[in-house]
Amino acid sequence: VEKPSRGEAFEAFVREHEDRVYRTARAVVGNDDDARDVAQEVFLKAWRALDSYRGDSNVRPWVYRITLNAGRDHLRKARRRPASSAVSPEDLPLPDTQAGPGELAERAEISRAIRQAMDALPARHRDAVILREIEGLSYREMSRALGCSVGTAQSRLFRGREALRALLHSHLTKGGRV
Amino acid sequence: MNCSRARRHLGRHLDGESTDLRVARRLHEHLATCESCRRQLDDLRALRRLLSPAKAVRAPGDFAERLLAMVPLRERPAAWKRRAETLAFGVVAAAAGALLALALRSMSPAGFDPVGDLLLGEVVAYETAPLPDLRYADPIGVPALQTPPVNGAGNSSDGDDT
C-alpha cells in the first residue's frame, strides 16, 4: 500500500478534527469569527508539525491542547482590543420554531450569561469544563489534554463547575432544570 | 459520608467515573437523606443542559476547503531538506574530487604534476609560434588596403569591373 503524501495526510487530519477543533475554539473565544481564526491557526501549526506525526491514535489530546492554548492566546490579544458583546446563534439553545419573542429574548440572555460566566473562570478551570461538558472527554483524556494528573484535572473541573454553578444560579433554577 | 465529602464525589458520580463501589454506595446513602446535596446534583445536571447546545457546534461547511487552499498540499520538499540535499551533494563532489587528485598523484612518477605540465605546454606553444606578418594585420578591423602577394597573380581582378 502506497504511503499517503504529506498533503493527503494533512487533508485527512483536517477532515477528522475540524469539528472538534472549531467547537473547542468557539467554546473558548465565544464567537464564530474568532473561532475560525483560532482553528485555522491550530491547523497551520499541525501542518508544520505533520512531519513528526505518525498517525498516533493519541493525537486527540494534543489537538485539544494546542486548540485550548491557541484560544487562550487569542483571548489575551483580544482583551487588548474593544470587546464585542455580540451573541452568536450557536450559543443559544437548539432552535425551536414554537418559541415566541419573549422566549427568544430569554435564551439570548441565558447565552450571554453563560458567555460571561465562562469568561470569568480562570483559564485552566474553563478548559476542564469545556473538555468534559462539551467534548465529553474522560478524566484520563482530560489529564492528557491538560498536561496534568487525573486528580488535578478532576480538581479543576470541580472548581470550574462550582464557579459556574454560583454564577449561573438563577438560570439553573429557571431554565436548566427539567 | 458528610456533605463536604459527598460534594467532592458528585461530579465523578455524574460523569460515570466512580470506580470505588464502596464510595458510590455511601454517596447514594447520603443523597437519600440530604436534600441540599440532591439539589447540588440537580444543579450540576442543569448546568450540563445549559452548556449542551455548544456540543452541536460544527465547523463551517467551507472551513476545510479554505484551509486546504492556504497550504501547498503538493509542495516541493521543505527548504531545509533541499538545502541539506545540496550540501550533501557538495560534500560528496568535493570528496570525489579530492580522491581523484590523490589517485592521480599516487599513479604518477615522483615530481610529475599533470596540471602544471598542461599549463607549461600552453606557454611553450605560445612562445614558439611564428609571429604574424604585421604588414597585413588588421588590428582595428579595417580591411587591408594591400592584399598579400600571391605567386603569379599580381591582380586577381577578372575584369568584372570594366
Describe the structure.
The complex is a heterodimer of chains A (about 180) and B (about 160). Chain A is mostly helical and about 180 residues long. Chain A contains eight helices and no strands. In chain A, helix 2 (about 30-50) crosses helix 3 (about 60-80). The model of chain A has no long low-confidence stretch (mean pLDDT about 85). Chain B is about 60% helix and about 0% strand. Chain B is built from six helices and no strands. In chain B, helix 1 crosses helix 2 (about 20-35) and helix 1 (about 5-15) runs parallel beside helix 3 (about 35-50). The longest helix of chain B is centred in the middle third of the chain and has 29 residues, at about 80-105. The radius of gyration of chain B is 49 Å and the shape is elongated. The interface of A and B includes residues 133, 165 and 173 of A.
How are the elements arranged and paired?
The complex is a heterodimer of chains A (178) and B (162).
Chain A lengths: L5 H24 L2 H18 L9 H20 L22 H20 L2 H12 L4 H8 L3 H18 L1 H8 L2
Helix pairs in contact in A: 1-2, 1-3, 1-5, 2-3, 3-6, 5-7, 6-7
Chain B lengths: L2 H13 L5 H13 L1 H17 L11 H8 L8 H29 L6 H15 L34
Low-confidence stretches of chain A: none
Would you count the extended β strands of chain B for me? 0
Helical content of chain B (DSSP H or I, runs of 4+): 55-70%
Q: What share of the residues of chain B does DSSP label as strand, in percent?
A: under 5%
Task: Look at the helices and sheets of chain B and give the structural class.
Answer: mainly alpha
Distance linking N and C termini of chain A: 53 Å
Q: Give me the Rg of chain A, rounded.
A: 18 Å
Number of helices of chain A: 8
Oligomer: heterodimer
Shape of chain A: globular
Number of strands of chain A: 0
Overall 3D geometry of chain B? elongated
In DSSP terms (H or I, runs of 4 or more residues), the helix count of chain B works out at: 6
**SSE-based structural type of chain A:** mainly alpha
Helix content of chain A: over 70%
- Largest inter-chain contact set: A-B, 52 and 35 residues
Distance separating the two termini of chain B: 138 Å
Q: Which spans of chain B of ≥5 residues are poorly predicted at pLDDT below 50?
A: 139-147, 150-162
CA-based gyration radius of chain B:
49 Å
